[in-house]
């Protein structure tokens, strides 16, 4: 029936069954269990409708911008076409994936490899370490409204990075992963999976960039963090796609007993970016910090949805999302803290701070709480304001001109998030990137 | 000669007149103390001269080194040699003292001229030592989590680094215990060796034991009603402000 | 359709849900209802109501249009609780009255009705504090008394029927304009079957010294209350209005769906205070909104202690420059109760400010939810909002949810929202116990301390009542 095909055309856009088949052909060599999951995922993707105005999980979003038309699978690329990326700090290893292909690698330092640390592409991991990957790869449900796009991601996931740290191993230098999208209309599905066993310690920095002059691209990426008993995981992500790209990013974190997970997301790119971040505090002593910093220019739209679920007693979570809005940009922050009935002695905090730097910017905040245990301390707060006039005057009264004063204050605003990066070189290198992005 | 001339200045907040015809000339090296009961316009005077947006100048002029500053933005006034030491200094989270001062010092340099980093730090540390501020404070955010005394010392540190021609000091002694007061006063006094003119606003006489003024003016109902030297301050201390209010009322009866 | 037994089966609470002594409200009298529209809702019901009130044709038309809107609109269960589906509209009585004209003095009120008020514990002395009392009994004003001073000032204080009949030139202008019929399903229902409620007009510059009050009662099985209130404060006028209500407990649901519209013209001030204490089987779904013009102020002080489900989001549209809107809300949810309340602030002019302070207490298995909307569009400047919502959870399975939505455009406006959830601090309880207080007394003090800042804004007789209500709620919750 003509109407059915036109219906599926709107809900699958460029990602038709034919295109999916072409994708599957590229990854045929991967394990059967994974290919089966992808097929199921594709069916789910095709069946689910696009978000509509009455969906609570998409309140305030610009739904018309979510069209899936006009994209294509990534073309192969060789390393000569890609500029080598720099972590900006000494690291334990680097992977650079361009259009899903590994084009450059600084292999994992020997001392870590010897202790059993694995740092490789996701495809390698699926082939060689299936047993480690399977329990954790996209294992968490999607609860924030993007079921359709998460299914799309799973169906078309081609490559990414896999980091595995065995028990009691500390990787004291950061691991860098660069995901690079080249070519107009390219659809990229990057994924980074981190598994830290008991008492492991690791820092990962994930960078997402488009080739210069890339134009409109489609990025649908995911990231799973699993922190076992006593593990400490720091995850940094810098989203810097081209300004015409439609971007999705799904973070899922599982924190087991006595863990410390720190996740810092920096957003500067894309025309419209949806970021969903989900933390599960599953066992006593778990602690998850979710931080984000967004610089919104032009008519960019950053849509951030978060969920902190406390499922066990004596857990804590702390969320700080800061947005700097310029021009006619728009941000949406919707965060929910859920405390299960047995999760007594939970401490959960959530804060959204929007710095309005122009006449026409728009900030929307939907902080939420669903609390079913009573011996808890939970707060959430959201503020939207321009630069504090008193602070501005204070700086100017020292001779600093208004533009510079504004810059200093905006960087001060950013520092609350950036300051959480413990590695000083990494901090400085990211601070510099943010500074450039702000001035652009 | 470098001069700060305040001529028949009228200042309002909204449509409420606060300062009603204030006149004063400050020469380099002079310390003029302004005393008066609360609500009489002392802070308003200082903040408005520095260019605070909440205040409107409705009449008169302020002339710094021969040029009227009323049309200048706050940062221009500061670069012209004016410094305001706040009564309640702002906290600036995320901006370190080192970065902040460097930006302020750099702002005064000519286009293209670069700050000499080692020279800058040498000077910064020596001033910090003088004001008994721990050198580690350079990496702390400006006034963030500082005690009252620490904030005031930070104001004087900035004054020492920026070397203004004229300083408006707004109740610098408020909230300080005797030790902190002494440190702050010492800091200010070392700056007096240069050609610095100071407008020292204070409610209490105590500060003037440490920073001895050349002139004392009493401000009431938005203008100066009495002037004298240090002994006037002692007289006020003994008689209280009611004495001034009565004199003023009698004069206007 | 959910079976009735499900409602019957609500757990007999370990903590007695008692109101001004809520047991004082759990009774009903066999009364002769001279006018009874029967159960169920149809066009005939609406025509019957209109004819009994001898309404002008335009009002009947208004009602009929509203009925159609009501049928067309779906239940808002995509965001609200599914418990709403338990309301069976055909099982409710929509109009009931003794066909009595409003009374002028207390002495003229019939004995059995007097008995009702006496059992409610309204002391006779209280009357001298009241400027006028419009007491509603089963949809019709049974008692109305406007004190001379107020009448002499030109203040009009009548019920909705009288207001529309005697003063259409004043009320028609704003009636149905602040809350249009189609605003939501329940405002449409009210617009179809409304009866009773207060219509108040305060002339320019008149500041009404005493608060105006009204009491309500539901007294028949399956009977819903649909009062309609419209208060207009003309330029520079000031008025305070208070409403408090109780209802008896029955084994099937009852429905209270009121509409309150406030209009504060230039420089006017309206304060609307509600203490709601319906019995545990009442669905209390109210739409309340005010429009504040230039330099005007509207303040909603809302206290929700009773009912099975209350959904109420008092709102203010800040239409004129420098208008101010405020919502102060206290909610207490005990076993079997869900207080779903909040506030809506819509800024539509420069330099307007809004303030929302909501405090909720969840006891036993009670559930309290805060929903808020703050909207500041981009062409405005100088607007400010401050929102604080704090929740106190008393027992281990008490529950609270918070869902605010704040939308700000431009760099010339500022909003601030803070919310917190906590339990009563053990240290605090221990400290009080070490001074000789029992745990229950300590809890009471702590809870009263939690709401103290808000409770102080209620007129004194209400804050005393509030304190007693909370003490009684807390009694069963500890130990």
How would the blueprint of this fold be written?
The complex is a heterotrimer of chains A (440), B (253) and C (479).
Chain A: H1 2-12, H2 17-26, H3 32-47, E1 72-73, E2 93-98, E3 101-106, H4 110-114, E4 118-121, H5 122-128, H6 130-133, H7 147-156, E5 160-165, E6 175-181, E7 186-188, E8 191-196, E9 201-210, E10 218-227, E11 232-240, E12 246-255, E13 260-267, E14 272-281, E15 287-296, E16 301-310, E17 316-325, E18 330-339, E19 347-356, E20 362-371, E21 377-385, H8 389-396, H9 402-418, H10 424-439
Parallel strand pairs in A: 1-7, 2-6, 5-8, 6-9, 7-10, 8-10, 9-11, 10-12, 11-13, 12-14, 13-15, 14-16, 15-17, 16-18, 17-19, 18-20, 19-21
Antiparallel strand pairs in A: 2-3, 4-5
Helix pairs in contact in A: 3-7, 8-9
Chain B: E1 4-13, E2 16-26, E3 31-35, H1 42-50, E4 56-64, E5 67-68, H2 74-79, E6 82-85, E7 92-96, H3 97-107, H4 117-130, E8 141-142, H5 148-162, E9 166-170, H6 178-191, E10 197-201, H7 207-210, E11 215-220, E12 223-228, H8 230-239, H9 241-251
Parallel strand pairs in B: 3-10, 3-11, 6-9, 9-10
Antiparallel strand pairs in B: 1-2, 1-4, 4-5, 7-8, 11-12
Helix pairs in contact in B: 5-6
Chain C: H1 5-8, E1 35-36, H2 43-52, H3 57-72, E2 96-97, H4 111-119, E3 132-137, E4 140-146, H5 148-152, E5 156-159, H6 160-166, H7 168-171, H8 185-193, E6 198-202, E7 212-217, E8 228-233, E9 238-246, E10 254-256, E11 259-264, E12 269-277, E13 282-292, E14 297-304, E15 309-312, E16 315-318, E17 324-333, E18 338-347, E19 353-362, E20 367-376, E21 384-393, E22 399-409, E23 414-422, H9 426-433, H10 439-455, H11 460-475
Parallel strand pairs in C: 3-7, 6-8, 7-9, 8-11, 9-12, 10-13, 11-13, 12-14, 13-15, 13-16, 14-17, 15-18, 16-18, 17-19, 18-20, 19-21, 20-22, 21-23
Antiparallel strand pairs in C: 1-2, 3-4, 5-6
Description:
The complex is a heterotrimer of chains A (440), B (253) and C (479). Chain A has helices at residues 2-12, 17-26, 32-47, 110-114, 122-128, 130-133, 147-156, 389-396, 402-418, 424-439; strands spanning 72-73, 93-98, 101-106, 118-121, 160-165, 175-181, 186-188, 191-196, 201-210, 218-227, 232-240, 246-255, 260-267, 272-281, 287-296, 301-310, 316-325, 330-339, 347-356, 362-371, 377-385. With 440 residues, chain A is of the alpha/beta class. Chain A folds into two domains: 2-283, no CATH class; 387-440, no CATH class. In chain A, strands 1, 4, 5, 7, 8, 10, 12, 14, 16, 18 and 20 form an eleven-stranded mixed sheet that branches. In chain A, β2 and β3 (101-106) form a beta hairpin. In chain A, α3 (32-47) runs antiparallel to α7 (147-156) and α8 crosses α9 (402-418). The longest helix of chain A is centred in the C-terminal third of the chain and has 17 residues, at 402-418. Chain A is globular and about 65 Å long. Chain A starts with a helix and ends with a helix. With 253 residues, chain B is α/β, with parallel strands linked by helices. Chain B has one domain (4-88, 146-251): Rossmann fold. Helix content of chain B is 37%, strand content 28%. Chain B is built from nine helices and twelve strands. Chain B has helices spanning 42-50, 74-79, 97-107, 117-130, 148-162, 178-191, 207-210, 230-239, 241-251; strands at residues 4-13, 16-26, 31-35, 56-64, 67-68, 82-85, 92-96, 141-142, 166-170, 197-201, 215-220, 223-228. In chain B, the strands form three sheets. A six-stranded mixed sheet of chain B has the order 6-9-10-3-11-12, sandwiched between helices. Chain B has a four-stranded antiparallel sheet with strand order 2-1-4-5, covered by helices on one side. In chain B, strands 7-8 form a two-stranded antiparallel sheet. In chain B, α5 (148-162) runs parallel beside α6 (178-191). Chain C has 479 residues and is of the alpha/beta class. Chain C has eleven helices and 23 strands. In chain C, strands 5, 6, 8, 10, 11, 13, 15, 16, 18, 20 and 22 form an eleven-stranded mixed sheet that branches. Chain C has a ten-stranded mixed sheet with strand order 4-3-7-9-12-14-17-19-21-23. A two-stranded antiparallel ribbon of chain C has the order 1-2. In chain C, β3 and β4 form a beta hairpin. In chain C, α2 (43-52) packs antiparallel against α3 (57-72) and α10 (439-455) runs antiparallel to α11 (460-475). Mean pLDDT of chain C is 76; it is low at 1-29, 99-104, 125-144, 215-223 and 246-253. The interface between A and C is large, with 39 and 36 residues.
């Amino acid at each position: 029936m003509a109407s059915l095909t036109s219906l599926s055309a709107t809900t699958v856009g460029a990602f038709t069954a034919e295109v999916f088949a072409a994708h599957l052909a590229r990854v045929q060599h991967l394990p059967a269990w994974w290919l089966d999951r992808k097929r199921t995922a594709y069916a789910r993707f095709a069946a689910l409708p696009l978000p509509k105005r009455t969906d609570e999980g998409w309140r305030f979003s610009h739904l018309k911008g979510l069209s899936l038309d006009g994209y294509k699978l990534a073309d192969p690329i060789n390393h000569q076409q890609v500029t080598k990326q720099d972590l900006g700090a000494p690291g334990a290893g680097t992977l650079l994936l361009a259009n899903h292909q590994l084009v450059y690698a600084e292999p994992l330092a020997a001392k870590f490899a010897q202790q059993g640390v694995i740092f490789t592409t996701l495809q390698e991991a699926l082939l060689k370490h299936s047993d480690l990957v399977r329990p954790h790869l996209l294992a968490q449900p999607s609860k924030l409204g993007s079921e359709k796009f998460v299914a799309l991601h799973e169906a078309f996931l081609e490559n990414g990075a896999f980091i595995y740290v065995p028990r009691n191993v500390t990787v004291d230098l950061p691991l860098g992963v660069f995901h690079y999208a080249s070519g107009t209309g390219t659809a990229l599905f990057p994924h980074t999976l981190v598994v830290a066993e008991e008492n492991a310690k690791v820092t990962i920095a994930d960078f997402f960039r488009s080739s210069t002059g890339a134009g409109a691209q489609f990025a649908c990426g995911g990231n799973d963090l699993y922190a076992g008993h006593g593990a400490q995981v720091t995850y940094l992500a810098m989203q810097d796609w081209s300004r015409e790209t439609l971007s999705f990013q799904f973070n899922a974190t599982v924190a087991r007993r006595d863990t410390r997970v720190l996740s810092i997301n920096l957003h500067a790119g894309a025309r419209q970016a949806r970021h969903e971040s989900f933390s599960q505090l599953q066992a006593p002593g778990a602690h998850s910090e979710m931080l984000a910093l967004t610089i919104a220019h032009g008519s960019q739209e950053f849509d951030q949805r978060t969920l902190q679920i406390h499922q066990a007693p004596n857990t804590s979570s702390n969320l700080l999302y800061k947005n700097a809005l310029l021009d006619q940009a728009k941000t949406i922050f919707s965060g929910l803290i859920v405390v299960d009935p047995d999760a007594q002695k939970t401490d959960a905090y959530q804060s959204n701070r929007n710095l309005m730097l122009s006449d026409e910017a728009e900030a929307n905040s939907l902080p939420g709480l669903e609390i079913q245990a009573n011996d808890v301390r939970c707060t959430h707060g959201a503020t939207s304001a321009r630069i504090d006039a008193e602070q501005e005057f204070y700086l100017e009264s020292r001779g600093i001109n208004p533009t510079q004063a504004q810059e200093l204050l905006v960087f001060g605003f950013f520092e609350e998030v950036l300051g959480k990066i413990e590695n000083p070189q990494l901090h400085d290198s990211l601070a510099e990137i943010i500074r450039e992005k702000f001035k652009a | 000669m470098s001069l700060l001339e305040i001529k028949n200045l009228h200042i309002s907040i909204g449509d409420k007149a606060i300062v009603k015809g204030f006149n004063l000339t400050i020469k380099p090296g002079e310390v003029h103390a302004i005393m008066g009961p609360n609500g009489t316009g002392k802070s308003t005077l200082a903040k408005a001269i520095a260019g605070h947006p909440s205040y409107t100048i409705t009449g008169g002029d302020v002339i710094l080194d021969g040029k009227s500053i009323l049309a200048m933005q706050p940062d221009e006034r500061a670069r012209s040699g004016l410094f305001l030491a706040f009564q309640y200094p702002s906290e600036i989270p995320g901006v370190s003292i080192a970065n902040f001062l460097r930006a302020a010092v750099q702002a005064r340099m000519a286009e293209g001229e670069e700050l000499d980093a080692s020279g800058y730090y040498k000077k910064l540390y020596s001033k910090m030592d003088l004001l008994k501020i721990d050198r580690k404070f350079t990496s702390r955010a400006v006034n963030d989590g500082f005690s009252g005394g620490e904030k005031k010392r930070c104001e004087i540190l900035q004054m020492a680094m920026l070397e203004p021609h004229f300083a408006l000091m707004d109740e610098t002694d408020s909230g300080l215990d005797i030790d902190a007061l002494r440190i702050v006063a010492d800091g200010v006094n070392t700056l007096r060796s240069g050609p610095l003119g100071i407008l020292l606003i204070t409610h209490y006489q105590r500060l003037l034991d440490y920073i001895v003024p050349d002139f004392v003016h009493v401000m009431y109902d938005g203008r100066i009603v009495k002037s004298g030297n240090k002994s006037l301050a002692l007289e006020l201390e003994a008689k209280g402000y009611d004495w001034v209010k009565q004199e003023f009322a009698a004069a206007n009866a | 359709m959910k079976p009735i037994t499900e409602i019957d089966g609500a757990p007999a609470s370990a903590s007695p849900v008692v109101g001004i002594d809520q047991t004082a409200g759990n009774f009903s009298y066999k009364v002769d209802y001279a006018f009874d529209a029967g159960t169920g809702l149809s066009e005939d019901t609406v025509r019957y109501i209109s004819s009994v009130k001898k309404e002008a044709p335009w009002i009947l038309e208004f009602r009929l249009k509203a009925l159609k809107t009501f049928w067309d609109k779906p239940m808002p269960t995509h965001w609200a609780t599914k418990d709403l589906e338990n309301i069976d509209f055909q099982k409710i009585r929509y109009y009931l009255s003794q066909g009595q004209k409003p009374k002028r003095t207390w002495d003229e009120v019939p004995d059995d009705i007097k008995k009702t008020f006496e059992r409610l514990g309204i002391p006779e002395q209280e009357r001298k504090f009241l400027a006028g009392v419009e007491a509603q009994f089963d949809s019709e004003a049974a008692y109305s008394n406007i004190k001379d001073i107020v009448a002499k000032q030109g203040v009009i204080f009548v019920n909705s029927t009288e207001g529309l009949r005697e003063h259409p030139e004043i009320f028609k202008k704003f009636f149905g304009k602040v809350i249009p019929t189609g605003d939501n399903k329940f405002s449409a229902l009210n617009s179809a079957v409304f009866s009773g409620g207060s219509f108040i007009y305060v002339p320019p510059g008149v500041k009404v010294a005493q608060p105006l009050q009204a009491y309500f009662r539901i007294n028949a099985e399956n009977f819903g209350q649909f009062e309609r209130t419209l208060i207009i404060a003309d330029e520079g006028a000031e008025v305070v209005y208070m409403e408090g209500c109780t209802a008896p407990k029955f084994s099937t649901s009852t429905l209270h769906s009121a509409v309150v519209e406030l209009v504060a013209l230039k420089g006017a001030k309206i304060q609307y205070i509600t203490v709601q204490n319906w019995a545990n089987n009442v669905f209390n779904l109210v739409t309340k909104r005010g429009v504040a013009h230039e330099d005007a102020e509207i303040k909603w002080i809302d206290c929700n202690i009773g009912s099975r489900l209350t959904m109420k989001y008092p709102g203010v549209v800040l239409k004129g420059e420098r208008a101010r809107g405020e919502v102060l809300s206290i909610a207490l949810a005990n076993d079997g109760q869900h207080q779903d309340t909040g506030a809506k602030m819509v800024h539509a002019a420069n330099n307007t400010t809004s303030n929302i302070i909501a405090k909720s207490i969840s006891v036993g298995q009670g559930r309290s939810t805060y929903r808020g909307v703050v909207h500041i569009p981009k062409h405005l400047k100088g607007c400010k909002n401050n929102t604080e919502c704090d929740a106190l959870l008393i027992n281990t399975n008490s529950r609270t949810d918070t869902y605010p939505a704040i939308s700000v455009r431009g760099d010339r406006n500022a909003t601030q929202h803070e919310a917190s959830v906590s339990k009563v601090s053990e240290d605090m309880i221990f400290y009080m116990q070490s001074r000789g207080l029992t745990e229950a007394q300590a809890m009471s003090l702590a809870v009263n301390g939690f709401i103290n800042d808000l409770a102080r804004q209620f007129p004194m007789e209400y804050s005393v009542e509030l304190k007693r209500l909370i003490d009684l709620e807390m009694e069963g919750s500890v130990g």
